[in-house]
Amino acid sequence: xxxxxxxxxxxxxxxxxxxxxxxxxxxxxxxxxxxxxxxxxxxxxxxxxxxxxxxxxxxxxxxxxxxxxxxxxxxxxxxxxxxxxxxxxxxxxxxxxxxxxxxxxxxxxxxxxxxxxxxxxxxxxxxxxxxxxxxxxxxxxxxxxxxxxxxxxxxxxxxxxxxxxxxxxxxxxxxxxxxxxxxxxxxxxxxxxxxxxxxxxxxxxxxxxxxxxxxxxxxxxxxxxxxxxxxxxxxxxxxxxxxxxxxxxxxxxxxxxxxxxxxxxxxxxxxxxxxxxxxxxxxxxxxxxxxxxxxxxxxxxxxxxxxxxxxxxxxxxxxxxxxxxxxxxxxxxxxxxxxxxx
Length: 342
Ligand code: SF4
Description:
- The protein is an alpha/beta fold.
- The chain contains 11 helices and 14 strands.
- Strand 10, helix 6 and strand 11 form a beta-alpha-beta unit.
- Iron/sulfur cluster binds at residues 111, 113-115, 118, 120-121, 157-159, 192, 213.
């Protein structure tokens, strides 16, 4: 089996090259090519032909193939369906904002967290994605659109903290200047609330942004929506969130998908505000996107605006998140809907 070089850090690649009798500087050249989006060794024109042939026989750099591309007619959002070497489907979304482009990447094929409103969890976890597979989502999205992405959110399919090592390796690689030199401040990792990993994240990746999918103001509602809450309840989650803000000095974001008759209305907003007041946080309110099989529906943008206004009035910063790619099932919780191979 060929070794995949895209999963390696520059140091590992150097060791690999030296170990196979090559010069260390060749590893640096290959690393740059890979992270500039080269699709194969034949594109690496500053390598000797003999080395390109040798690498072609023993190694590979492409982790994913593009299976399908859906372009939103509403807002220019592009959804990608990729396939891994072993046939797993992975989805990513390229989004255009006023302040620049952003890519939402997946960290796992499937997910085992079982959130009720999320289409990604229907078939459970297939497997973790490697750092190279996460990186390739960005490189292939950029290649297709011909545009660079200055921000990355790890908010697609999967729970990034359930794949901590590879998520960390991805962050540590993509931020290297020999790679994309992406600022850690322009990367956001979203968790459903795995508390031990939240603490580890604050310790090991303190400059990266953290978002927590909260979606409820109390344990009763959160237990119903998110099974993880039965393991780590809201008190513990909010304590860990507070701890994170103190330890890192960074604001934490809470994602709150408004679901009709479940977690919306003034009483929920007041209860939530009571629990978050005083924390260095921001709440992103969105109206839940339609996921037919969940039996849950969103309350619409107006309800989301009213909910955010209630929070704001109670002293908690909140905004309504702009929804992108709704017509191509690229919005939150919709990533695996209607995906079929062409
Ligand atoms: S919302 Fe996130 S954590 Fe929950 S099931 Fe979906 S992908 Fe997994």
